[in-house]
């Protein structure tokens, strides 16, 4: 039986050469973004995979990063597990020599009820997360990739079709736009939430839009501060967050409804700054019932000497934004029913997409990398082939057991806070107070996020 062929708009490619130097590879990684490049570097540095030929394909041009005083408006919040991975592959050394911000404390609160929860301590040794510009992270991994001997990287190469293996076949064939073909034993799809690899797999994909836009910008603070706290306030229209960059600047991530987003993109910079400060400080009308219930619960907590939010801080005021740094992007949810098929596996946004309110999207992708690297290493160590379906199934099972609850939890938070119905506000406010007061529950949340 002939293998199935699926037309695609583009297959990723990227390179330190202008053309493919081999016709068959053990592994081809489709997509040279943060996840694809990090996966290539991680697999290339896995000593158990040192004899495997790996190709990283990226359809776009090789990005050049120039270190300047101006920050990019797109940043990621990396949890300790992701930080460890980047450190293990030596990419973190390049980031460390450039710039990043360590988050020591996180404060989250409800704009309607003022219920609050905090994590960490600004004077602690341990960091909660690390704020890094997307472009800088990609540049750091790309630099380290050049030190990996068994990984070839090619840019500006597109594909016309994928031919996925069926039954007794054991190779994936990729036909490029120039008419040439390459094959691999294992294709790894890291080509984003519109993944062509996923479409070629014909797996079911559950997706919906949140009817929200994420607005980003680089902000200048009104005064120089220690700036090691990440702030997030849940507004009736969506959460707004300040992520530290340095003692004078923070990055904005503001999720709101499309009409408001369009307005915020069109108003003057001075008006936009006023809107940001208003979103963080505006007082909303409180319900007497909710205020009474939260005070009663607060007294209950004090009676048992449990932690209360006495350590609440106030976020910094914003004086201006970096010119030209305002931008917006649509927010949505997506999850592939299957992460694997014969000779294929999905990684990162190709497999799952979530709301940015918990800062877990990219960390789920790096979690995929950690797991897949271990699974493929185990397969080779046990004398199996690199595309052994039983090992790929282990990857899928492990990651879905973590990703699905996390995604549903984040989606639940979005829906819980995108509601100003008084009983719902009361429920979430008491839940926030309880989570803050009960240390074992709070520790579980921290473990989940890291």
Automatic annotation (TrEMBL):
Lineage: Eukaryota, Metazoa, Ecdysozoa, Arthropoda, Hexapoda
Similarity remark: Belongs to the UbiH/COQ6 family.
Domain of life of the source: Eukaryota
E.C. designation(s): 1.14.15.45, 1.14.15.46
Mitochondrion is among the record's keywords: yes
Name under which the protein is recorded: Ubiquinone biosynthesis monooxygenase COQ6, mitochondrial
Keyword Nucleotide-binding: no
GO molecular function terms noted in the UniProt entry: 2-methoxy-6-polyprenolphenol 4-hydroxylase activity; 4-hydroxy-3-all-trans-polyprenylbenzoate oxygenase activity; FAD binding; oxidoreductase activity, acting on paired donors, with incorporation or reduction of molecular oxygen, reduced flavin or flavoprotein as one donor, and incorporation of one atom of oxygen
Gene that this sequence comes from: coq6
Complex formation: Component of a multi-subunit COQ enzyme complex.
Keywords (A to Z) from UniProt: FAD, Flavoprotein, Membrane, Mitochondrion, Mitochondrion inner membrane, Monooxygenase, Oxidoreductase, Transit peptide, Ubiquinone biosynthesis
Cofactor(s) named in the record: FAD
InterPro entries: FAD-bd, FAD/NAD-bd_sf, Ubi_Hdrlase_CS, UbiH/COQ6, UbiH/COQ6_monooxygenase, UbQ_mOase_COQ6
Alphabetized SUPFAM superfamilies for the sequence: FAD/NAD(P)-binding domain
Catalyzed reactions: a 2-methoxy-6-(all-trans-polyprenyl)phenol + 2 reduced [2Fe-2S]-[ferredoxin] + O2 + 2 H(+) = a 2-methoxy-6-(all-trans-polyprenyl)benzene-1,4-diol + 2 oxidized [2Fe-2S]-[ferredoxin] + H2O; a 4-hydroxy-3-(all-trans-polyprenyl)benzoate + 2 reduced [2Fe-2S]-[ferredoxin] + O2 + 2 H(+) = a 3,4-dihydroxy-5-(all-trans-polyprenyl)benzoate + 2 oxidized [2Fe-2S]-[ferredoxin] + H2O
Provenance organism: Acanthoscelides obtectus (Bean weevil)
Domain FAD-binding: 162-278, 336-400
EC class (word): oxidoreductase
């Amino acid at each position: 039986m002939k293998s199935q062929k699926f037309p695609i708009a583009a297959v990723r490619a990227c390179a330190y050469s202008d053309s493919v130097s081999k016709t068959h590879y053990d592994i081809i990684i489709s997509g040279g973004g943060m996840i694809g490049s990090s996966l290539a570097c991680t697999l290339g540095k896995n000593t158990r995979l040192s004899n495997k030929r790996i190709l990283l394909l990226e359809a776009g041009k090789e990005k050049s990063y120039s270190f300047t005083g101006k920050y990019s408006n797109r940043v990621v919040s990396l949890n300790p597990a992701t930080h460890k991975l980047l450190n293990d592959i030596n990419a973190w050394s390049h980031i460390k020599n450039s710039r990043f911000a360590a988050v020591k404390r996180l404060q989250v609160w409800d704009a309607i009820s003022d219920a609050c929860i905090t994590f960490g301590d600004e004077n602690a040794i341990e960091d909660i997360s690390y704020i890094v510009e997307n472009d800088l992270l990609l540049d750091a991994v790309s630099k380290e990739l050049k030190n990996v001997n068994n990984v070839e990287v090619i840019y500006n190469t597109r594909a016309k079709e994928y031919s996925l293996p069926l039954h007794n076949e054991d190779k994936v064939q990729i036909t490029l736009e120039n008419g040439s073909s390459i094959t691999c034993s294992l294709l790894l799809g890291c080509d984003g939430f519109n993944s062509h690899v996923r479409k070629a797999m014909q797996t079911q994909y559950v997706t919906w839009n949140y009817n929200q836009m994420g607005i980003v910008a680089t902000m200048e603070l009104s005064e120089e501060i220690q700036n090691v706290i990440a702030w997030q306030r849940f507004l009736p229209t969506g959460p707004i967050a300040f992520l530290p960059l340095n003692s004078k600047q923070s990055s904005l991530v503001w999720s709101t409804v499309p009409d408001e987003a369009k307005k915020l993109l069109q108003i003057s910079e001075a008006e936009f700054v006023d809107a940001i400060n208003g979103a963080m400080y505006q007082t909303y009308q409180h319900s007497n019932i909710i205020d009474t219930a939260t005070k009663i619960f607060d007294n209950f907590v004090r009676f048992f000497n449990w932690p209360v939010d006495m350590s609440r801080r106030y976020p910094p005021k914003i004086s201006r934004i970096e010119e030209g740094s305002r931008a917006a992007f649509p927010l949505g949810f997506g999850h592939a029913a299957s992460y694997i098929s014969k000779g294929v596996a999905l990684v990162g946004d190709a497999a799952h997409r979530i709301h940015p309110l918990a800062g877990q999207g990219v960390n789920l992708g790096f979690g995929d990398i950690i797991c897949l690297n271990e699974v493929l290493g185990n397969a080779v160590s046990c004398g199996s082939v690199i595309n052994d379906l039983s090992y790929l199934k282990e990857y899928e099972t492990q990651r879905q057991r973590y990703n699905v609850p996390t995604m549903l939890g984040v989606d639940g938070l979005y829906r819980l806070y995108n509601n100003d119905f008084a009983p719902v506000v009361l429920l979430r406010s008491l839940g926030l107070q309880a989570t803050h007061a009960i240390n074992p529950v709070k520790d579980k949340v921290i473990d989940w996020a890291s």
